[in-house]
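Predict fold of Putative FERONIA receptor-like kinase; 535 aa.
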Amino acid sequence: YNLSWLFPIDSGFQYLVRLHFCEIVQQVTKMNERIFKVFINNQTAENEADVIYWSGGNGVPVYKDYVVLVPVVSMGKQDLWLELHPNLDSHPRYADAILNGVEILKLSSNNGNLAGFNTPKIYSFPVEPSSKSSKNSKKIIFVLTGCSLGGLMILILFCLLGSHFRIITEWTPLCSVLQLCYSKSNGTKKTNISPLGRPFCIEDIKAATGNFDEKLLIGTGGFGKVYKGYINGGATIIAIKRGNPCSEQGAYEFQTEIRMLSQLRHHNLVSLIGYCKEYNEMVLVYDYMANGTLHDHLHFTQTTHTSPLTWEHRLKICIGAARGLHYLHTGTKQRIIHRDVKTSNILLDENWVAKVSDFGLSKTGATMVSHSHVSTDVKGSFGYLDPEYYKSHKLTEKSDVYSFGVVLLEVLSARPAVNPTMEDEHINLAEWGLRCYQNGTIDEIMDPYLEGKIALESLAKFVEITKDCLAERGVERPPMSEVLWNLELSLQLQSSAEADRKTDVSVLAVSIGSANNSDLTPGVEFSDIMIPTGR
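Predicted 3D structure, encoded as tokens:
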């Protein structure tokens, strides 16, 4: 099971996060029986947490301390994110995680201060004494009494509708939340979105990128160019996406990206640091992903100067991306449909952890049972687009499942989703792959680098779930939870086959060594050395 919590805390402080563990399941008595990962604020705190290893035995409590710096993102509270995932790489007996308690202690700043930001003051203005007659004073008293009673009734009404009001305002479109203000210095219009991320001024963005130096350009997408940047005196590397005025994606996609990522926290989703909206510039600031995109590692290994990804490595990346999509579909108050799932939107951090990115086209899905889809204009990337959505304009989370099926096929073949230079029947990868599956010739599209390196059981499971994702009708496609389960099974089958292969090689080496020795008593040829006595 995956465990996750959000704790509201003050910005601008360091926090001591103390996690308490105690293995109380009687069957868990040895190391490596329950292994899990710990993530704090989207960073890996423990990759192989083993409570038995830490404590020395079952029923023995133990705690681990972590210090977390929470930068100033907004003047109010922000969430400290804690999540635990089972680590399946080590093949534990129990595939889940445990946590018995948590303490979060604020550490004082350099001047010994523990106070957070003050909330805005509300000023009251005294009423000047009236010089009118007592008759007018009585009228004023009646008016004030009536206003007070009316205000009390309104307050009660708001309390009764409070929960409903909060649900509505939380999902209000960003355009109605934005507050426009004017700079006193030059009269230019700025956008204040401080509750939704750290606001950067354009001067900070230019300083971080060397005035958008092309040498720092690391990618180009539908929204615009992406630059590598440096902030905090060069100590922090960031990715800066600059909107292109000529792009089809504009202010709406910019607002959608901020709204979505400010509300989402998951280890397999890219993290938004902040934004800039000045002088007709639309800029988004993200955590820097050191290993680029999955697309680059599948198609441009010469450019990235890296070896092709191994099959096990590809499976782990697919599993990470599937976890991110599963969270979007099931882990939020309203289902979120990404609508642009593709290999170039799957980023890889320094530890090769997959992060789903680019939420500019995302939509919140239907929540009522009577409404199973969202009617909307068709948007997405050619080659990954769900054909049912394209024909009917009815969007569901199964549209993401179809797009992810194309991603899986791309991972297996290292071929682009669409290749106009190929013959007609091979232009569309999804159609080509389905034909190969039906004809039993899936090896026709496999990446030559993977030949002889994939266990047949692992390949069969991977191809089966890929085929299911690409079903023509959305109702026939599996949910992302099922896709994730099958990908993890495919990885386990691959790991087991490799372990068996190593065992077979070791046994074969021993057998060969024994066969070459013709004597029944090994080592008799060197008896004078083994028994150092005179003859």
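The domain at 291-510 is CATH 1.10.510.10 (Transferase(Phosphotransferase); domain 1).
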